[in-house]
Amino acid sequence: MTDMPLSDAALSRRRPLLRSPALLLLPATLFLGVIYVLPLIDLARVSLSGEPWWAHFNRVFSVPLYWDSLVRTMQIALTVACLCALFGYPTALLIQRSRGTMQVLIATAVILPYFIAILIRTYAWMVLLGRNGPINKFAIWLGLYDQPLALLFNRGTVLLGMTAVLMPLMVLSIYSSLSRLDPGLTRAALASGAGPLAVFWRVLLPLTLPGIGAGFLLVFVSALGFFITPTLLGGPADQMFAMHITQQADSITGEGFLQALAVVLLLITLVVVGIAGRLMGFEFIWGGGKLSEPAEAAVKGPSGSARPRRRSPAMAIADMIGWPLLRIMGRMPASAGTWTVRALGFLIICTLILPILVVIIISFSEASYLTFPPPGWSLKWYEKFFSDSNWMSAFWNSLGIAALSAVIAVTLGASAAMGIVRSEIRYKSALMLLLVSPMIVPPVVLGLSLYSLFLQLGLVGTYFGLAAAHAIGGIPIVVVIVAASLQAVDRKLEQGAAVHGASPLTVFRTVTLPAIAPGLAAAVFFAFLHSFDELVLSLFLSSPRMKTLPLMLWADINYQLNPVLAVVSTLEVLLVVGGIILARPVLSRSRGGH
Fold first, then answer.
1. Are 121 and 164 in contact (CB under 8 A)?
2. At residue 121, does pLDDT exceed 50?
3. End-to-end Cα separation, the chain, in angstroms
4. Residue ranges of the alpha helices (H) in 366-388?
5. DSSP labels for 396-412?
6. What are the phi and psi torsion angles at 52 (to 5°)?
7. 178, 93 in Cβ contact below 8 A?
8. Exposed e or buried b for every residue in 107-141, given b needs 16+ CB within 10 A?
């Protein structure tokens, strides 16, 4: 008789646990643990298989070829981050200061290229800078020189291409900081007699340093793992560290040493992110605030009184080096700053949009080679694309894999986002860091780590294998978007439905799901697009019988350049633009509803 009450009591204690939203984190955590974390751990294990255990790492740092490449990679990544910060700030200011339709157009011109595949944007620069490209022809027309110059395959071209690819990251990060500023601060500074330059130096710049720092770190970490752009635009002297990993992957003798190369790149990335996380908080990775429940009063003293704010290091630096500079620049007219922002912003927008427009125009050329402007107009390259069985097979493969990958990413990512936002568990930031960490792992490292696991499971060259691999990168996108949507939902609506007897499933179906539908739709689209564009993982995990559209594009760019590639690029741009246009009514209804 005493067993039944104890059993009932145990069940009653378990029911709240079984209903906890924290359980929604389990599927995504298990998926990433098995298919993402364990392969990276195995990668590290194999890298330590030498005799002695540090033998492979000793070779990495002692052979001049690899050491010089590692130093070069750091230098290029740092230079690209500095260029993005230098030119990204005025572009973000231009967006922030614009209004109405003009602001929408400028923001779209910056954001749109970010969703277009890196391979396509790099190909666009190959067209633009080619011997028969518009830059050479325009310079000859101006009389700057008589013969086309070799503008490709040098360090300057690599820096230009990588900066153009990563610029949207910096602009969005800085604009996020600018949009959160109180407009009254600048008005008060101007009313106090400070000039525009002083207001920028003493108010805008110090307050937006977190955004600049976050953008700088994201660009720097992303640039460390680049190999597509340097491979296509650079020369032998511009070889980056990730390129050695892809080259060694083709060598059977690279076992152990190949993994050591990947581990070195991964460790450098993790060290940079770790230092940044200690200084800024790891929230810079996903662009959100802290996920811990209680918000501590950071500006209150022990007695509850307001503590005086300390002078920030940024303002101290501004005082030391800024005022002499401002005295000199203060002699310039006030409109100089405005026109400088407009000119630099316009230059960046042209840099982002012009290559894509040139590629679209070339896709309608009748010439059998890349030249701009086209000597005539024709649809023959579109006919060639749609009639070529290899291209169409690759297209349908990409479509099917992307659809399956989006289903996996949205199912796991949306449930994980619900668990993060709605649960009361501790260490939310640590869990969020695990969920979004694939965003910072270099793709070549991830692809190499997955190859051994997928080979053992027989998943190399399969639909499900490629879809699951692509979903690793899709889950962070879904988590960030859906978590932001959930945080915008009024909890009182859900609590009201629950008080009136609705089950958790009913509350989600009738209250939460309609509220987050726009964000969920955006998550589906971007998870699909991420998989559709994925090249690096596909290079490691595909097979000769399983080709995707990016793989076909990569092969043709390396071996032959013809307008069919421009057709593929144009269709990709149309896919992105069409998806954004279809999403606008949903997003508009969402804004109107709030």
1. yes
2. yes
3. 56
4. 380-387
5. HHHHHHHHHHHHHHHHH
6. -70, 180
7. yes
8. bebbbbbbbbbbbbbbbbbbbbbbeebbbbbeeee
Lowest mean pLDDT segment, chosen from 61-70, 193-202, 329-338, 426-435: 329-338
Separation CA 55–CA 57 (nearest Å): 6
Cβ atoms 589, 524 nearer than 8 A: no
| Secondary structure E strands in 364-499 | none
Beta strands (DSSP E) in 254-406 are: none
Tell me the C-alpha distance between 50 and 261, whole Å. Answer: 13
* Position 459, amino acid: L
**Neighbour tally for 167: CB within 10 Å:** 25
**Mapping DSSP to helix (H, G, I), strand (E, B) and coil, where does residue 462 land?**
coil
3-state secondary structure of 242: helix
Average pLDDT, the chain: 81
Burial class (CB in 10 A: 0-12, 13-18, 19+), 241: buried
For 354, the token pair is: 């012009």
Please state the rounded mean pLDDT for residues 493-512: 70
Q: How much is the CA Rg of the chain, to the nearest whole Å?
A: 26
Structure tokens of 554?
A: 């990569």
* CB-based contact 535:447 (threshold 8 Å): no
Does the pLDDT value for residue 331 go beyond 70?
Answer: no
Q: What whole-number distance in Å separates Cα of residue 45 and Cα of residue 53? A: 10
d(CA 25, CA 33): 12
d(CA 406, CA 363): 29
43 Cβ contact list (under 8 Å, min separation 6): 259, 262, 263, 266, 445, 448, 449, 452
φ, ψ for residue 160, nearest 5 deg:
-65, -50
Q: What is the pLDDT of residues 38-83, one digit of tens each?
A: 999 999 999 998 788 888 899 999 999 999 999 999 999 999 999 9
For residue 594, pLDDT over 60 is answered with no
Nearest Cα residue to 565 out of 391, 399, 325? 391
Task: Evaluate if residue 158 carries a pLDDT over 90.
Answer: yes
Note the pLDDT tens digit of each residue in 264-297: 999 999 999 988 888 777 777 776 655 544 433 3
User: Would the pLDDT of 106 be above 60?
Assistant: yes
Residue matched to tokens 């008060």:
188
